[in-house]
Structure formats: C-alpha cells, structure tokens
Amino acid sequence: MRFNYRSYFKSHHPQTLASLKSILNSFFFLLSKVNPMDGNPPPDDPPPFDPLEPSNPVSYPLKTLEELESRSYFNSFHFPFNKASVKLPPYAANELPKRPRLLVCHDMAGGYLDDKWIQGGNNPDAYAIWHWYLIDVFVYFSHSLVTLPPPCWTNTAHKHGVKVLGTFIMEWDEGKLLANKLLSSQKSAQMYAEQLSELAAALGFDGWLVNMEVSLDVEQISNLKEFVSHLTQSMHSLVPGSLVIWYDSVTIDGNLSWQDQLNAKNKPFFDISDGIFVNYTWRENYPKHSAEVAGDRKFDVYMGIDVFGRNTYGGGQWTTNLALDVIKMDNVSAAIFAPGWVYETKQLPDFQTAQNRWWELVERSWDISQNYPQTLPFYSNFDQGHGYQVSVDGKQISQTPWNNISSQSFQPFLEFSGKSTGGHLKVVVDIKEPSYNGGGNLTFNGTLDDDFQFSARLFEGKLQLADSPLNFTYSVKSNGNSLLGLSLEFTSAIREQRSVLLASGDSLLTMGHFVRHFDNVIMPHRVTKAETEPSWVIQESSIAMEGYMLTKIHAVCYKLRPEVHKKVGQGKTVPFSPSEYHAVLGHLAINSCTLNSDFPPSTSWLVDGNFTKWSSSASHGSKKLNVKLVWKLKDGKTHLFPKYYIYVTKQPVLSIAETNGSLPLVQEFLGVAEVEAFYVSDLLVPSGTSSVKFIIQVCSLDGAFQKLEESPSLDLNIQGS
Ligand SMILES: *[C@@H]1O[C@H](CO)[C@@H](O)[C@H](O)[C@H]1NC(C)=O
Ligand SMILES: *[C@@H]1O[C@H](CO)[C@@H](O)[C@H](O)[C@H]1NC(C)=O
Ligand SMILES: *[C@@H]1O[C@H](CO)[C@@H](O)[C@H](O)[C@H]1NC(C)=O
Ligand SMILES: *[C@@H]1O[C@H](CO)[C@@H](O)[C@H](O)[C@H]1NC(C)=O
Ligand SMILES: *[C@@H]1O[C@H](CO)[C@@H](O)[C@H](O)[C@H]1NC(C)=O
Ligand SMILES: *[C@@H]1O[C@H](CO)[C@@H](O)[C@H](O)[C@H]1NC(C)=O
Ligand SMILES: *[C@@H]1O[C@H](CO)[C@@H](O)[C@H](O)[C@H]1NC(C)=O
Ligand SMILES: *[C@@H]1O[C@H](CO)[C@@H](O)[C@H](O)[C@H]1NC(C)=O
Ligand SMILES: CC(=O)N[C@H]1CO[C@H](CO)[C@@H](O)[C@@H]1O
Predict the structure, then answer these.
(1) Which family does it belong to (predicted)?
(2) What percent of the chain has pLDDT over 70?
(3) Who has greater pLDDT, 232 or 441?
(4) Is 407 in the pocket of ligand 2 (CB under 6 A)?
(5) Ligand 7 pocket check: which of 610, 630, 631, 678 to mutate, most ligand atoms within 8 Å of Cβ?
(6) CATH classification of the domain holding 577
(7) More confident residue, 665 or 116
(8) Using a 6 Å cutoff on CB, does residue 660 contact ligand 8?
(9) Are 585 and 612 in the same domain?
(10) Which atom of ligand 7 is nearest to the CA of 611?
C-alpha cells in the first residue's frame, strides 16, 4: 500500500512535524478501511479488534488515558506475546556512555505495519534497520497516545546493545483535553507516570520519549514537571539504566514554542529527565549554545535531524551528514528522525542498496556506537529479519516469503563500497537464495586477481579472552577455487596488535602465501560437510590468545593455488587477470572451547495447548485448528534459549497409515517464537488425520538446534474422530 504523499506535503506547508504525520496517518487510516492489511496475513473480513479474543498476536498502542489507568492492557490476549524476550547485554544495560550518541526515531509511515505481527508476516520486503552498530537509542514513534514498541524491534535492538523507548504523545485539541486530565492534580500526574513505567518494565523496553505538543496554562506546569520527574524516577527504579527523553515543545511558561536548542525555556524539563530531543529546525550555532547551557550534561542534548529534510539543517535526505558533522564538532548528541525516508520514498536503485548507502553517510560523520562480539557465545547467520526462505543447518525448511525482524542475527559491519584494487567484489547480504541458517546469507561475488586478497569488515568487537581457547565455526559455500578465510585482529593490554588468519582450504601454499601478511596463519582443525546439504563446508578452528582482546573480524577472499595460473607462455610471467570469485558465508559461531550446548531432554518440558478451537473448513471434511501453544521448563527456568522453531506433523488415521506403509511424516514449519508461546492460527487439518503433533525445536544462544526427534512436543487428538 503506497501512495504519493510528497506532492501533498509540498502544497500544504504543514506547520509541524506532528501535523504532517497525523495527516499521513489519517490517510493510512482511510486507506486501511479499504484494504485493511495489504501484504499481510489474509484479513477474512476482520471483526472489530477485541484484545480479549484469541487471534494472531499483534502489537498495538493505547489510545486513551482510561486504558492506561485501568491497566486493561495486562488482560489482553496479546500482552504475553508483546513482551520482549531479549534483554540488553550487561555491558549495555547501564547509563549511556559519555560521548556523543546517536538516537534514531523510527516513525515509519505511522507505525504498526508489517512489524505489528508478532509471529511475523509474509512481506519479504518489509522495512527493517540493520545498521545497529551506529545507534545508541531507538525510539518507536506513532501518533497514538501511548506507543508501545513491537517486541521485534526491542529484541533486535537489545541484541545489538541498543536501548529502546516508547512514545507518550499529546497533540492537537484532543491532546489538550488529555493534558487537562493528566495534569488535573499532582496525584494524577504521578499515577499516569507510574502506569507508563509499569508498562515499559513489563514489556521489557527502556523508557519513554515524552512529546507534549500542546499549549498549557502556566498553572499546569508544576504538575507537568511532577509528571516528568516522577516518570524519570519510577523508570529508573524499575529499570536501571532506562531513559526518559523530553521533546522540545511546550515551554516552562506553557507556550507551545519549539526552541530548537536547549535554553532557559525548556531546560527545567531537561533538568528532571535524561535528555532533550531538540526540534530539528535549528541553526548552525545552536548545538554549541545548547552544549554551553547543558554544562556537564551536553551528551544528553540530542539535536534533531529530519531525514525528510523539512527545514532541517543541511537538508536531511542524502545530505544528512552535514547536520551530523556540525553536531559532532560541537560534541553533543544527534536525534535522527524518520530514517524510513529511504523506504517510504523508494530511493533508487532498491531498498537494500539505498539503505546501505544512506547509513554509510552516517558512518562517515559518526563513530561506531556498538561493538560486538563482547560476550560468548557469539553467533550470526546474517539474517536481516525478512526473506524468501528459511533454512536450518543448510536444509531449507520453508520457501514462504516472510518477515519478522525479531529473528535478525547480529548484523555485520559491512562497508558500502569495498576498497579493492585487484578486482571487483560485491559483498551483500542476500535474502533471495538458500541460506545456511535463517533467511539470509553473506555473498561475496565478482572478480578477483589471483594474487590478491580482498578483505571485508564483518565485526568490530571487544571480546576479552581468558585462558580457554576460542572455537570458531563457520560455514562456506563456494565455487571453483574461491576460498574464504577470516582475519582476526587482537589487541593486548599494552596495545600490542596481533593479526591471525583462519585459513580455508588445506594447501600449504595458502600458508606460504599469507605468512607475510599475518602474524599467524591457522588451518582449520576440522572440516565437515553439512549432513543434508553437502555443498556447505563447515570449518572449525581454535585459537588461544589469553589476555588479548578480539577487536576485528574480517572476511578474506582469495583463490586457491595462484601459482597454477602464473606461468603461461614459456616461462614469461603474464599479468594476472581477474577471474570470477563466488563464495557465500552462511554463519559464524564463536564459543569458548569449554562451553558446549546441551539441551534439556524433552521430558523436562511442559507443553500445553490453550484456547483450542476447532472449526470446519470449506473442503471435504477437513478442519481448521486454532490453538495457543505454551511451554516451560519444569524447573521454572526461563530465558535460557533465544528462540524456538515450531513445526507440526499430521498423523493419519490407522487405516491410511497402514495402506501408506511407513511413509515418513512431513514436518511442516509453522514459524518462530521468541517467547515461550506460539499462536497457531487456522491450521488446515485434512480429513483422515487422527492427531496432530506440535514440535517445539529449541535453539541455543550459539545457534545450535535441538534434534527434532529429541525436541519437546504436544500431541492433540482430532476432536470428534
Ligand atoms: C519546530 O518544529 C516544528 C514542527 O514540529 C516546526 O513547525 C517549527 O517551525 C520548528 N521550529 C520552530 C522555531 O518553531
Ligand atoms: C517469522 O514469522 C513468520 C510467521 O510466523 C514465519 O513464517 C517465519 O518463518 C518467521 N521467521 C523465521 C526466520 O523463521
Ligand atoms: C506565549 O505566547 C503568546 C502568544 O504567542 C505570547 O503573546 C506570549 O508573550 C508568550 N509568552 C511567553 C512567556 O513567551
Ligand atoms: C568532548 O567532550 C568531552 C567531555 O567533556 C571531552 O573530553 C572531549 O575532549 C570533547 N571533544 C571535543 C572534540 O571537543
Ligand atoms: C556475480 O558476478 C558476476 C560478474 O562478475 C555476475 O555476472 C553474476 O551475475 C554475479 N552473480 C550473482 C549471483 O550475483
Ligand atoms: C566448536 O563449536 C562447534 C559448534 O559451534 C562444536 O561442534 C565443536 O564441538 C566445538 N569444538 C570444541 C573444541 O569445543
Ligand atoms: C490456559 O492456561 C492457563 C494456565 O496454563 C489456565 O489457567 C487456563 O484455564 C487455560 N485457558 C484455557 C481456555 O484453556
Ligand atoms: C497416502 O498415500 C497417498 C498416495 O501416496 C497420498 O495421496 C495420501 O495423501 C497419503 N495419505 C496420508 C494421510 O498421508
Ligand atoms: C547457499 C547459497 O548459495 N546462497 C545464496 C546466497 O545468495 C546468493 C545471491 O547472489 C545466491 O546466489 C546463493 O545461492
């Protein structure tokens, strides 16, 4: 569902960001009445949304203060599904670092689109962000009173060390009425602040952006200050390291008057919160002034930049870096608003390329904010959270297009244009073709000189090594003589650097070739092929670097036995000519050699079906099944596993089973759960089925999967058969 709203923007000169977006929203709202869920699970003429009724789990905002006050959200069928399952890693759970930070405010076409489907949707081209390593704080924004971030965003942001905020907004005449209620007494202000904190803590996100775009009577300001300070304090006490950020809007004298800087009119709110998001129409010297006003809290000033470029310094869009440069020079923080511009305005040539090119602008002006790996186990399969197929250990288990950014793996720090002279290699995360695990792979394709090695940045970490060696495992699929190794950079406490190549292939020539480039070249100690898909080669290497820190991981592309091509034409050396190179990196796992994933046996799990509902379907005697699967370890431990893959098998009635002999049952893949619950909706069960068996395949932090036959499961007999 797309329409051209740019001309609309131009002709109406909307005054505020909010008005612009709310006009947009009402368009989407109107359109959504025509076609409720374009590109998403089929609507079947949906009845009005009743949060108490079981249905495909969704994320949704709160629209009234009554909902907030009554705490009715906690009774919703959808509430347990909305809990983020990934916590911030310990190194990112404290206060933000004391340096300029990058806050990114999502605001994608009104929000709650493909991302509202908690168990994923079927749009392989759904919006996603994957440059998490450049971001410190992510705000999920919509124009509803209480915007709760869909858990998929919180999960992937947390995985990468990024904090996530929801939005509390009051705007327009309606907002004014709400504000009157909110601020009617000190008690009321405190009560709503506590409800907001409770929601954030229960859903697992890290605080709020407070956007009071209304003008108030000056008498209301003291209760507003009470609201902001109480929210900040209650957030901090429930979620240490959490943030409440004030948006530069209503001033201390009650006027709705954006200051575009930190000054005496908005500083009282800054003083009682964790920072201010400054309106994006500032001038060149405002960041500097704001820094002076903020004193030792200058990094808590986030200068707004509108990527759509509406009166924003530097023009946003493809010159967003101009504003970033000024902000960086003045040593304050930046708040990028609506980077979804790249997606919404369909920048050429395609979303993947345009998005990478746009974030490259950011990286040019700004430092890397997140370093990973920092802890073990570390695992990435380069999944971007959308795609056309899903694989497990090289075997394709689904060929249905899908999206759910919850399943994003650690995203590589790919540079937009590789610096290469000896040929031309394109490195992309490809989501269209078979992968090793998940739905993406990292493809290195193009031409490469025989004597040349091409290096592409994968990760920049801070992994402190102890006495036990590191175990590197990675899968590669490659053509001809294309080889792919990993180069590692280690730094000691006294800043001594060591470079190590984990080489591929088994030839000693490789050693000879690389010895002068690296301090150490390590051959894999085990090379195996994937059981079901032998074109994937799995290399295992181990390395001991006690006392060092692993800081860089690059992929190194090279050719096998360059000497073969060297001497053509009677002893004369001819110039090397670039030839084709093609390799795919399927996954990378780093673990300590002493750690190994053991799964609890299936008998230690309790699996249950809840809200089971059978209905008849249109075709001959088959039925439809809805059921909420829930599972937990009998010992009550939770959060040991990052995700679960859900499958179903349909057991035929005895007579058919006998006729068909011992045909293996087909395991149909249903989806992925990140919480210990999965809602199966409208599963078709053909006649002649006696029972269905749901299998919950457990996946560990290091990316290992429990064997299907050893996974917990639940049998359901067919009702009435
Ligand atoms: C601040 O932002 C609003 C939109 O949110 C805009 O209309 C206004 O022009 C900006 N600047 C000033 C100085 O008000
Ligand atoms: C995301 O959810 C959808 C729908 O449940 C599912 O089809 C898809 O496979 C899930 N993602 C992955 C990586 O499996
Ligand atoms: C508030 O806004 C009104 C109307 O724009 C203006 O007359 C008044 O001076 C403003 N008050 C302050 C304290 O700036
Ligand atoms: C930025 O501020 C920090 C802390 O006040 C200071 O140490 C640093 O030198 C400043 N950097 C620049 C470029 O001014
Ligand atoms: C790989 O690169 C070559 C050009 O060097 C191109 O012809 C080919 O289509 C590319 N293959 C893929 C899968 O991108
Ligand atoms: C290294 O990790 C792989 C899987 O990630 C595992 O199969 C292997 O046993 C480990 N090797 C050692 C020596 O720990
Ligand atoms: C769902 O499960 C809960 C606890 O597991 C139980 O209390 C409740 O009765 C069940 N509801 C239905 C409709 O089966
Ligand atoms: C039994 O086998 C027949 C033919 O191979 C197939 O069409 C049918 O679907 C099978 N029935 C079941 C329940 O698997
Ligand atoms: C395993 C594998 O081959 N994966 C795919 C990765 O993406 C590239 C896209 O160019 C495909 O060609 C590969 O087939």
Answers:
(1) Belongs to the glycosyl hydrolase 85 family.
(2) 84
(3) 232
(4) yes
(5) 610
(6) 2.60.120.260
(7) 116
(8) yes
(9) no
(10) 13
Count of structural domains within the chain: 3
% of the chain surpassing 90 pLDDT: 63
Q: What is the pLDDT of residues 11-41, one digit of tens each?
A: 233 334 444 444 444 434 333 333 333 345 5
Mean pLDDT across the chain = 86
Residues 314 and 402 in one domain: no
> Which pLDDT does position 112 carry in this prediction?
96
Give the H/E segment covering residue 25.
Answer: helix 17-34
Residue 383 has what DSSP assignment?
A: -
134: nearest Cα among 162, 171, 174? 162
**Candidate of 474, 528, 540, 706 to mutate for ligand 6, largest count of ligand atoms within 8 Å of Cβ:** 540
In a domain, 294, yes or no: yes
Q: How many angstroms does the Cα of residue 580 sit away from the middle of ligand 5? A: 8
- Joined together, the tokens standing for residue 121 give 């949707």
Lowest-confidence region among 8-12, 128-132, 514-518, 607-611: 8-12
Instruction: State whether the beta carbon of 377 lies less than 6 angstroms from ligand 9.
Output: no
Residue labelled with tokens 């060092």: 548
Residues 191, 220, single domain; the answer is: yes
CATH code, domain carrying 272: 3.20.20.80
One domain, residues 284 and 150: yes
DSSP code per residue over 232-273: HHHHHHHSTT-EEEEES-B-TTS-B---SS--TTTHHHHHTS
Q: For residue 666, which ligand has an atom nearest its CA?
A: 8
* 394 in contact with ligand 2, CB cutoff 6 A: no
- Please write the tens of the pLDDT for every residue from 645-690: 999 999 888 777 667 666 677 889 999 998 899 999 999 998 888 8
**Which run of H or E residues covers position 344?**
helix 341-344
Q: How far is the CA of 669 from the centre of ligand 2 (A)?
A: 9
Q: Whose CA is nearest to atom 7 of ligand 8?
A: 660
Of 567, 592, 617, the position where a domain reaches its end is: 592
Tokens read off for 344: 């919404």
Q: How far is the CA of 145 from the centre of ligand 3 (A)?
A: 26
CA-nearest residue, atom 3 of ligand 7? 610
pLDDT score at 441: 75
In terms of domains, do 606 and 493 share one? no
- Residue 397 and residue 345 in one domain: no
Do 111 and 259 sit in the same domain of this protein?
A: yes
- In 3D space, the residue among 252, 593, 587, 652 whose CA is nearest the CA of residue 410 turns out to be 587
Quote the pTM value.
Answer: 0.85
Q: Is 706 inside a domain boundary?
A: yes
Measured CA to CA, the distance from residue 130 to residue 147 in angstroms comes to 22
CA 594 to ligand 6 center in whole angstroms: 9
Instruction: Give the CATH number, domain containing residue 632.
Output: 2.60.40.10
pLDDT at 101 over 70: yes
Domain membership of residue 440 as a residue range: 378-592
Nearest residue to 307 via CA among 291, 292, 324, 293: 324
> Is residue 183 domain-resident?
yes
Indicate whether residue 446 lines ligand 5 (CB < 6 A).
yes
Asked if residue 391 and residue 356 are part of one domain, the reply reads no
Q: What is the CA radius of gyration of the chain?
A: 27
Q: Is 9 domain-assigned?
A: no
Instruction: List, for residues 243-298, the tens digit of each pLDDT value.
Output: 999 999 999 999 999 999 999 999 999 999 999 999 999 999 999 999 999 999 99
CA 32 to chain centre: 26
